[in-house]
Design brief:
alpha+beta; eight-stranded antiparallel beta sheet; three-stranded antiparallel beta sheet; 49% helix; globular
Length: 584
Amino acid sequence: MSLAAPVDISASPSRKHPNNTYAIAETPPCVAESRGWAWCLFWTTCLAAPIPLLIPYLTRLWQQEHYQFFPLAAASVVLLVLARWDGRFRAPRSWWGSGFLLGGWVATALSVAIFSPWLAMVGFVALASSWLLSAREGSGRSLLVLVLPLLTLIRLPLQTDMLLIVRLQTWTTKIASLLLDVLMIPHLTTGNVIELTGRELFVAEACSGIQSVFTLFFLASLLVAYNRHPLWFTPLYWAAAVLVAIIGNAIRVASVAVADSIFGFDWATGWSHEVVGYVALSIAVLLLLSFDQWITAFLHPIQDVPNYLGLESNPLVDCWNACMGIVPGENEFPAATTAMQSAVAPRRPRFGWVLPVAMTTVCLLLCTLTTLSLGSGWNGSVRQPSEQELTVFFTPPEDMFAGVWNDGSVVNHEIARDGEDRRLGKAADIWSVADSELQYQVVLSQPYIGWHELCICYENLEWELADRSIITSDQNAADNLAERGNPQFAFARFRRNDDRRGYLLFAAITYDGRGVAPPLGPGLVERLGQRFAVNPYVPQQEMMMAQLWLESEERLHPDDIQRLRETFDRVRLRILETVRNSPE
């Protein structure tokens, strides 16, 4: 018994055009052209509305080294749009397009109300998503996927981007240590510090800069947009970006260690450090391209399948192709539109321009409001310096803590300047104290922009945070609040796998001698709550961080903990008083 000859399913009309909704919903060209000028004006003013508030946002974004790729991201989107767009302006399509449009308007209006350039960026991306969803390629495919590179320009809120970089440092250190073990280079890893025979390598900056994970987020998004992958591919590519970022930076750290241990070269600073960084970035990009080729080999549309049974359509194939971003009949969009043009009478709507002109008026109002908000809420000549650029220092006098401890309690006073110990900031003073039965360190490190969460720093040193609370000073008389600032400081307990205990008390002090309210906690939920607090702290003010750190073999008695709190409170108040009275 012989089988029937294969049936050519590509010639079947029902197989080729099972879904003609795009052709039916599309406005005939004769009507669309009559409204083209109106929708062109609408989308131009719509996308221009948030731009005034994007100026301060992008200015601040450039100061973050791990976001300095944003000019390349914007240029790539513009080039891809110019290369693919058919040049026709259309009305917002579907509920998604209307939702993006409404969300963009709301975000832009809120950015004006509370002067939030970040919300203006969110609004711009939402408005761009609405336009890209309505725009079409020559084949009829939507341009929505091109919004992905723009998404990477929205900085993660509540400094989550910095938390992500800090978390990745731990994995970078572990993999770099594994590579050094393979190369048989003697070293010792303590937290995020790799100790070689002749020097220490601190992995605090390894995941930052242009070689950061956020640069690879952008490149992964660009790959999805360039290859026209479905949007649900994006989480897979972003996960791959995190992995290759860790591998690339581990290679970067291991290369510096190998150059120092074997060849005696210093690749940790200067132009050689930059070259090593870009080489590591190139390796990460190649790995990302390899992942793209691998995933494309497994996840791609099915072009044609044998149809021995003569079925009109294969539902499994149609479902798979839909998941791969192929809509049946989408490539035939122009031909279907031409057919409809001949079927529909070329009549011109009487009030077809009313809707786009009315919506354009709303966009012009938003554009005016954002421009006025920019003029009243931001001074372009004032640039917020980075922590590396700050040169304001407070020099503690030798007798600053006279009377705080008994005579002879201060065992040693160590002074670190010009970033000698990068874990303690650009400048630090360390006092080693042996007070009664307790031995601890008091550190004054500076300068920082905003509150520096020291709990994260100790977690990177392999200390596990047990709890964190906020303590109010006992010496908080009403007449001292205006002069001393906020009377609160943070208290955290840590533990290690070897049953060692750690106790940390820390506070922020401004350069005019005022205390700063600590955040509710190091986590995202606490930071979000702090933003809606009645008296939130000022996150962008230049500050010093004072801390008291004690390690113990066993848990401290409550009386000892109370004595530590009182001691740190006296230390904090003495620093506040000295800073206020300092001639500097």
